[in-house]
Amino acid sequence: MLLGFVLLYLVASIGIGMYAATRVHSARDYITAGRSLPLYIVMAMVFATWFGAETVLGIPATFMEENLGGLISDPFGASLCLVLFGLFFARRLYRMNLLTISDYYRVRYDRRVEVITGIAIVLSYLGWVSAQVTALGLVFNVLSDGLITQAQGIILGSAVVLLYTLFGGMWSVALTTFFQMIVIVLGLLYIAWLIGDLSGGIQPVVRHAWEHDKFAFWPDLDAVALVAFVSGLLTMGFGSIPQQDVFQRANSAKSEKVAVWGTVGGGVAYFLFAAVPMYLTYAALFIDPAMTQRFLQEDAQKILPLLVSGHLPLTAQVVFYGALLAVIMSTASGTLLAPSVTLSENVLKGLFGHGKPLTDRDLLRLTRWVVAGFALLVTVYALWALEHDTGIHQMVENAYKVTLVLAFVPLVAGLYWRRATTRGAYWAIVLGLLVWIPLEILAPQGEGLVPPQFAGFLAAIVGMLAGSLTRWTPQARLA
Question: Does the 2-394 domain belong in CATH 1.20.1730.10?
């Protein structure tokens, strides 16, 4: 019965996505929803895309195993990214009327910088999207009591997300994520109400966490701990800014004001609502302490699903798994579309047409083919990761390193420093790679004083300054 309700939810999501496809008449409709979305839709897309499997399962598990300081990258860094993008990037980029974030690098610098940053952005999404379809496979496996294997669940989940994303593009993402956001918020609040009755309310849970130092946030006062703390914040906080999914949501807004406040509002909502699954998971200590202690030793991500399955009625289980499925699918659809659009618009488009620009219909067709191809690549990678026992968190934890090193400095310098040049962008990319990659190989876990990606980020700043100042040609300031 539980699986049947979940399948009905999948059918409803596909139906909404297929309805959205009727609004797609051009590549711009497909990529930016015609730049016509109102504030509440933009906020819903930002919130639902970032509120993924990691937020419901990964963040609470880290909080249980460590403390609040262990969440510095997510939700603190993730929320910082969305607020910063809204306040300092959304308005300027919206005015440029671009299709993708990588278009900016071509307009401000040149085609080579566009291709390099475009490839970097696409690569950063592979692990992230694969993590979402891996989580879908896990949900199907649990709901079917093993009747559907996790590998079969991955294939099924990929097919469902591909189906409604392929035809409707950004319109499908917009309408389905708005529906899914409602399911997420109402569903988790309902579960929180039931869990509160079983645990004695919110106050005892918060008091217990406070007494056991779970709200400890600041690092030790030594150089290594401080640098690791700042690096954790900035890797996600800065590295997520030059990402297509963030840009695409702001760029789909009907005005620059909506682009700004939709992104900021979505970021604030994400930060505040991330506390709900943390509370639900920590309350398990009061409701089923034996199970909680057991899975703290094995896999803390299983605590919340097992708490719901073992202590809540069927109605609550349907609501919880519907919300969890909404969480995963909203993130998967948005993160499948974003790299596919970047790859088709900024890398592949120039290889077709023999020097002639592609027509709008050709670009739309190319983008849909790339969406299908990227979905296949994601499925293969997820199955490979499952075979090699690669965890969901491990697949996503490195996603933003590449964009922090390669794309962030040229973006900020180009927008806010008149003297930034194409030569400076080249130097930033090259120096960032030369520092980051060797350190990543020699000390992948950041055993040294400075984490590899943070060292690469600092090197990119030096490269931009040196390359731009050694031979400066005045360039017009962009609006």
Answer: yes
Collect all residues with Cβ–Cβ distance below 8 Å to 280 and sequence separation of at least 6. Answer: 60, 188, 191, 192, 195, 304, 307
> Within 10 A of 49 (CB to CB), how many other CB atoms are there?
26
269 φ, ψ (degrees, to nearest 5): -60, -40
DSSP β-bridge partners for residue 37: 253
Is the Cβ–Cβ distance between 336 and 126 less than 8 Å?
A: no
| C-alpha to C-alpha distance for 325 and 398, rounded to whole angstroms | 24
The segment(s) of the chain belonging to CATH 1.20.1730.10 are 2-394
Q: What are phi and psi of 37, to 5 degrees?
A: -85, 140
* 160 DSSP assignment: H
Dist. CA 170–CA 155, nearest whole Å: 22
The residue among 325, 339, 310 whose CA lies nearest residue 137 is 325
R_g of the chain computed on alpha carbons: 22
Q: Which long-range contacts (CB under 8 A, 24 or more apart) does 390-393 make?
A: 392/53, 392/54, 392/57, 392/58, 392/131, 392/134, 392/135, 392/301, 393/54, 393/58, 393/131
Instruction: Output the CA–CA distances (angstroms, integers) from residue 291 to 287, 317, 381, in the order listed.
Output: 9, 18, 32
Q: Shortest CA distance to 8 belongs to which of 143, 130, 135?
A: 143
| Residue 365: Cβ within 10 Å count | 14
DSSP single-letter state for residue 96? T
Encoded amino acid at 462, one letter: V
234-272 burial, b at 16+ Cβ within 10 Å, e below that, comes to: bbbbbbbbbbbbbbbbbbbbbebebbbbbbbbbbbbbbe
DSSP class of residue 76 equals I
| 253's tokens | 């807004």
pTM of the model: 0.85
Residue 443 CB-half CA count within 13 A: 13
Residue type, 139: V
Cβ pair 332, 136 in contact under 8 A: yes
Distance from C-alpha of 16 to C-alpha of 161, rounded to nearest angstrom:
12
Instruction: Count CA atoms within 13 Å of residue 186 on its CB side.
Output: 9
Residue type, 156: L
Query: What are the tens digits of pLDDT across the range 454-466?
Result: 999 999 999 999 9
Task: Provide the pLDDT for residue 271.
Answer: 95
How do residues 52-99 score in pLDDT, each as one tens digit? Answer: 777 888 889 889 988 899 889 889 999 999 999 999 999 999 999 998
